[in-house]
Design brief:
Shape: elongated
Radius of gyration: 17 Å
Order of helices and strands: HHHEEH
Number of helices: 4
Strand order of the largest sheet: 1-2
Structural class: alpha+beta
Largest sheet: 2 strands, antiparallel
């Protein structure tokens, strides 16, 4: 997950913005980039949007207050971690 997406999640939890535009203002980023990143987070199932008139308010999926992440790194991803023989 990109740092920009993590920053958006933090803003959603801490600031509880009322719209995508307000979210962009909170993180001081361009609306289009924030909109694209929020759509990615929605596709990943991390956030959802609550309709409020013509606005879409980003919230954590299911109204949760926290997000837990887990990840794994395979040995292939680490490359050769053994010291070279001399």
């Amino acid at each position: 997950m990109r740092t920009s997406n993590l920053t958006l999640l933090e803003a959603i939890v801490d600031e509880q913005p009322e719209s995508i535009r307000e979210t962009a203002e909170v993180v001081d980023r361009d609306y289009r980039g924030v909109h694209r990143n929020l759509m990615e987070l929605q596709e990943l199932g991390v956030i959802e949007f609550e309709a409020d008139g013509g606005r879409k308010r980003p919230i954590l999926r299911g109204g949760s207050e926290t997000v837990d992440f887990s990840f794994s790194i395979s040995q292939d991803d680490l490359g050769d971690t053994h010291p070279a023989s001399v």
